[in-house]
Amino acid sequence: ATLKRRMRSLNIVAVLGLLLTSSEIAVESFTISSVVRSNSACSIGLCRDAKLSITTPTTTTTTQLLSQNNNNNDNGDGDRKNSPLEWAAKRVKKADPLGISRDAILCAAFVFGRFWIYEKFHSYSTEFGMQDIGMQDVVYLSGTLSSASVLAIYWTIAGYLTQSFETRSQNSDYNPLQILVNVAVCCPVWIATEHALRFGPSDIGGATLSVSVVTGFAGLGSAMLLGRFAFAKMSK
Question: What pTM was estimated for this model as a whole?
Fold first, then answer.
């Protein structure tokens, strides 16, 4: 009887040992499977991060190119974002020097032609048919030279503001509307400066300032339209 009891106790101990061993094996297998799953998830995450790191520079480069294309504006559409000094520097850089010189010559020719006509009607001849040239004529002539310089400067500034010196098409050498806009911008200031500083005869444009402005508009507009038209025909 005692032998049977011992055998039963041994069997129970063996069964308990088998159960403990199987439970430990199950726990270890579960741990291994969880570790494998976590490693695979990490590898997938790394791949996604690598893809993002690969595509991010491309997106950044594309954005930079688009911004550069928007900033490289040859027509001056993006000039509003720049400072006045940068805007003025762009206008000077894009302006045609030959166009500036051409208009300065036309302005000087108009002023000297106006003075020559005035002298023809207001000077007196000597008995030998020669006109008397005195100090007053020298003063008028120097004032006319100053007036021509001031008009050329004002016309150039007006051309920069209206961008009329920038070549955009083949017909840009002669644009009547643009020429008249330049006349409207610079002519009143030029006449006012001429009268304020007393360049030339006081009544060369008219008896009053308003009459001088009207005749200045008509004379300067006609001279610049005809001169630019002649230059456009000669350049073809």
Answer: 0.62
